[in-house]
Amino acid sequence: MKPIKPIVTRLMLGALTCSVVAACSGNKETQDNTPNYKLIPAKKVLFNSFVDCNMAEAWVGDTFRIFPGKYGEDPLWGNARDLKYADGRHAEEAFASKASDFREPSMPKNAPVNVTGLHGAVWFETVYQDSTDKSGKTLYAVYHNENYPATLPYNASTGEGYKNEKWPQGITGPTSPAAVCRIGIMKSVNGGKVWENKGIFIEDLQARMILKPHNTSKTFAGGVGDPSAVANGGYLYLFYGEYGYPGQYNEKDYNPQKEWSGQCISVARISLTDLDNPVGKARRWDGKGFNAPYNGVGAPIKSLQIPPESGGGAASSPTSSFHWGPSVSWNTYLNCWVMLMGKATGPSWAGSSIHISFNTNKDLGEAIQSQAWTKPALLLDKPGYFLWYPSLQPMNTPDDISNKYTCLRLGQRARLFVKNIQPKKSEYMSEYMIEFVKSK
């Protein structure tokens, strides 16, 4: 069946069923003041290097530089040296780079087991560019980090690490272990060619891991990951997936409803002045303010949670749905924040749709404004695919180039990129543009 031509605005509500569905269905309660948008088919762009995360990027002088890929030790998938960078005169040129155009930056080495240092694999998810460095070369990479009991065994004296007891199954088979995700910071002073690890600044510890027999989703044992970070009012605000138990997990009194109550997309923040020494400095939202410690129990953004009556549930269950993998940007045309996210509907992050949400409050630190996101609306559905890591990217228009837009700051139009996964094929690509329309 030939797919319906997917130009659909948020005002055209209704059920669409076809092999590819592009849709925009907002929250009726906020429909009058929520921005509108339309998804426009565009020439297909295939990315020529490995991507398994948000695209981290920055303008270094007049060069648009991207940092896709994975680096470090991984006993499940094998050690990786796929974290690379490529340049362009604008975003489209950088995204069109050939595989041979990508170069490896100098990265810190993994430390031996039980030695302080970098453990596990890392993916750069966001690059914050120090605004006080006029050269544009001082960069802070927010990275997603994954470990296992084998790479980060439990240390009773520090509480760090994991116990290989009733550990849940991983994604590659019955004998594979699930990973635990954490979030850290690296710094570069030469535009991203050499990186120094500054440490983990948000994590969940062993007590919050969800173990056998309850964790059967083949995703994470717990932890925090898949982040997107934006600078606002002297802080770096971190939007991330929360996969741990909201308290101490105990097999005997485990409650799936309680697990769900503490999961989905959460937010934390750290002062920009603490990025050089970030360990222990972040504070997580606890329902009233940024009061929970970096390794404490926070509270997710309630409007982004999927209610149980709509299929929402614990991330450790293979039959529950939850939003994950946020990508946040400030839109200068709408004068508001835009968030894209995936939706898991089955084991191993199965899910064929991506969703969009808005926050019209510029100051994320004022009162509860960091929580004021609209109910996620369907943006794109491709049955038969897993859709991961959606993001909006600038184009090669004079306006985008002169404003030096990146995935963190955009105008009225942008490219939609998303990772499309099938059983024997995985592509990071763009087939659409998105155009925003101001609400009346």
Describe the secondary-structure layout.
Elements: E1 21-22, E2 36-46, E3 57-60, E4 63-66, E5 71-72, E6 80-81, E7 86-88, H1 91-95, E8 121-129, E9 139-147, E10 169-170, E11 173-177, E12 179-188, E13 196-202, E14 220-232, E15 235-242, H2 256-261, E16 264-271, E17 283-285, E18 290-292, E19 322-331, E20 336-344, E21 353-359, E22 377-381, E23 386-393, H3 398-402, E24 409-410, E25 413-422, E26 425-437
Explain what the structure shows.
- The protein is mainly beta and 440 residues long.
- It has one domain (42-437): Glycosyl hydrolase domain, family 43 (Tachylectin-2, Chain A).
- Helices cover 4% and strands 38% of the residues.
- The chain is built from 3 helices and 26 strands.
- The longest helix is centred in the middle third of the chain and has 6 residues, at 256-261.
- The radius of gyration is 20 Å and the shape is globular.
- The model is unreliable at 1-19 and 23-31 (pLDDT under 50).
- This is DUF4185 domain-containing protein.
- Residues 1-22 form the signal peptide.
- Keywords: Signal.
